[in-house]
Every structure is written in structure tokens, then in C-alpha cells.
Amino acid sequence: MSFTKEQLREQMLLYAVTDRHWLNGQTLYEQVEEALKGGATFIQLREKDLTEEEFLEEAKKIQQLCKKYRVPFIINDNVKLAKEIDADGVHVGQSDMEALDVRAQLGEDKIIGVSARTVEQALLAEKHGADYLGVGAVFQTGTKTDAREVEHSVLKEICTKVDIPVVAIGGITQDNVKELSGSGINGVAVISAIFAQKDIETATAKLKSCVEQMV
Fold it and tell me: DSSP code of 135?
């Protein structure tokens, strides 16, 4: 699927990042479908503990699910695999492949997201062809124990300095998301606020409503 720049901005509202730590007898496919039913607008497959073969199999299934719901599906880090299955794009961190190189491999029509913690990193990512930025951690998070918090003033400055969409990530919940009001972000990326919840569909719908009010 291809998305215009304006559509992409809208798709950033509630960005769900997968994590199989909370499967509790369900499949990842089932959990992602619940999130999509609840209104998740963007899906990133981020699974650190699968073999390449297992990841490929999971990616193909969830890619079809996202097509059904007309929601962008991107792969975390693995540019080669994203190209192989023709995913909508890829998200890379500061220590992964550079955005320019990712663009050269994937082509102009794919979505490239880049993690940024500073204004300098954000500007460089935009200059090198990033389509959106993931900025965080904006709150303390248990999912990435090594993630240092990004001051909300820095988040706001990044939003004013770049022309591409910005999503905040890290420790975001229904209770604290309103603290990001006025920052200029286009949406939030979450893991446990969706996938660690007993009723994923309801939790997603409630969080989406909170994010819509905040944005």
C-alpha cells in the first residue's frame, strides 16, 4: 500500500509496536487484530527473540492483516526483510542503518521512520529522507530499560524544527498522555499500553480517544 504525506500524518495517531511478552495463550496475529479493531492506526513489528525464519513467517501474516485494515505495516530494524516481503517501510534507531542507506535500498515509495532524542538527530534524519520521527522515551518505560527520558521541552522543539510527523514513545499511558498536550506531536507509539492489557481492543479504543483529545 502507498500513503500520501497527509495520510501518513493521520496514520501516526496511534502507533502500536508489537511485543510477544504478553501473549498469554493468544497469537501475535490475534492481538494485533484486536488492536486494529480498537483503532490502532499504524503497526510496527518489533520482535527481538525470533529467528529470521520465524520473524519472516510472522511478518507475512501480520502484513496481510494490516492490508485488510488499510493500516501501514512496517518492520523494526530489518531492512533486508522489509524489502523481501515488500513491507510498507522500516523503522531504524540511531545505531542501525542510516536513513540515506535505507532509502537507497527500499526506494522512494517506502516509509522510513527514525528514532531521535535530540534536535540535531531529528534534523539530520529529516535531511536524509526520514518520513517520520519517533522521539523518546518521553516517560519512564519498562519496555526499554536503557532508554533515557527526553525532556518535553526537547520534544516540543523537535516538533517546531522539522516538517515531518513526530510520534512520542516511551512509557505512554491513558493517564499520562495528556501531559504531552501542546507539544506538537502527531501521535504516540505504545507497546504495553496496548499489548499488556487484558482487553486489547477496549484499551486501544480508550487510548485512541485520549490521544485524539491531546493532539
Answer: E
Is 192 annotated as a binding-site member? yes
Q: Phi/psi at 76 (nearest 5 deg)?
A: -80, 125
How far is 131 from 51, CA to CA, in rounded Å?
Answer: 28
What's the Cα-to-Cα distance from 92 to each of 39, 99, 116, rounded to whole Å? Answer: 24, 8, 10
The answer to whether 96 is annotated as binding is yes
Query: Mind listing the pLDDT tens digit of every residue in the chain (215 residues)?
Result: 889 889 999 999 999 999 999 999 999 999 999 999 999 999 999 998 999 999 999 999 999 999 999 999 999 999 999 999 999 999 999 999 999 999 999 999 999 999 999 999 999 999 999 999 999 999 988 766 667 899 999 999 999 999 999 999 999 999 999 999 999 999 999 999 999 999 999 999 999 999 999 99
Q: Give the CATH number, domain containing residue 11.
A: 3.20.20.70
Is 143 among the annotated ligand-binding positions?
Answer: yes
Rounded Cα distance, 113 and 118, in Å: 15
76 annotated binding-site participant = yes
- Dig out the grid coordinates for 92 from the structure: 531504524
Which residues are part of the catalytic machinery? Answer: 46, 115, 144
Residues in a beta bridge with 90 = 75, 112
Question: Based on the structure, what is the number of domains in the chain?
Answer: 1
Give me the domain span that covers residue 48: 5-214
